[in-house]
Amino acid sequence: MYPRKILEYMEGFLISKTVFTSCELGVFDVLEGAERPLSAEEISQAVGASLDGTQRLLAACTGLQLLQTQRGDGQVFYSNTEQASVYLTRSSPTSLYQAIQYSSRTIYLCWHYLTDAVREGRNQYEKAFGVSSEDLFQALYRSDEEMVKFMQLMNSIWNICGKDVITAFDLSPFKVVCDLGGCSGALAKQCTSAYPECTVTIFDLPKVVRMSKEHFVSEDDQRISFCEGDFFKDPLPEADLYILARILHDWTDERCTELLCRIYKACKPGGAVLLVEALLHQDGSGPLTVQLYSLNMLVQTEGRERTDAQYAALLAAAGFTDVQHRLTGKIYDAVLGRKEA
């Protein structure tokens, strides 16, 4: 018996750090900007790294099928694979570069304390960054720089996955939409693109709204507006549809019910709430990605990932009925609950 799987799991972090480092150095960007395949020496000079280290990094990226090689004049020349060009270069509209940077510089540091998180049953911001986690988003947005990094993460995720979840149900009957915790506005843009007759109000903390206006949402997005506030404390805008995208997984069941009750009261009769979450199988047996996300929620938040039945129970506790879910076949799924007319 050879412990192949166990060894693969042990070495998983090596793969992550290889991708993180290649993005941080700009390897894929250099190759994307070149008009021809480049040698290791050319790449090392362009990214300001040692030749030996660059050669080893390029070899690993080739093994990961992120780079492809060709030989000539006794040298190896490198170029991006299609996947690297589409998802790992900063210039690509579907780039995951910022998500990778956030994973490398924030999430990875929190996961260093996973053992403590499991023992203590709480997030590890204090150990990882020396900040109190009593107010979750004070810790998450502990500086303007960190807040923009998080917003860039969410922006890149919804640029890739947003259309799938927004079109999982036919939302065209809902003309007035409120995206609670709408962050960078990427999902709001997907919504107005898919449903040209709707308007979307992004409700978020004042500093998030300020950053969103500065960096992500322009005046050209005329059907998107903003409302500042804390969705646990401040009045919510009246709407036909409320979107909670990757919000409830941050919180305990009690806090989720509290928020959903506030939404139910604000929601117009006949309206609905759309939850966008990564759903666990009913028996908790998978998917593996979602199980790992749930561990991340332990390390970083107060919440957890849940099954569709668990989300349905939270919605029912707040008064919503006719709860349905749709699996997109991608990372994130959709759950819709309605308020009777």
What does the model show?
It is a single chain. The protein is of the alpha/beta class and 341 residues long. Helix content is 49%, strand content 18%. The chain contains 16 helices and 10 strands. The chain has helices spanning 4-10, 12-25, 27-33, 40-47, 51-63, 82-87, 97-111, 114-120, 125-129, 136-140, 144-166, 186-194, 206-215, 253-266, 288-300, 308-318, and strands at residues 38-39, 67-72, 75-80, 176-180, 199-204, 224-228, 239-245, 267-277, 321-326, 333-338. The strands form 2 sheets. A 7-stranded mixed sheet has the order 6-5-4-7-8-10-9, with helices on both faces. It has a 3-stranded antiparallel sheet with strand order 1-3-2. Strand 2 and strand 3 (75-80) form a beta hairpin. Helix 2 packs across helix 7 (97-111) and helix 11 (144-166) runs parallel beside helix 12 (186-194). It is globular, with a radius of gyration of 22 Å.
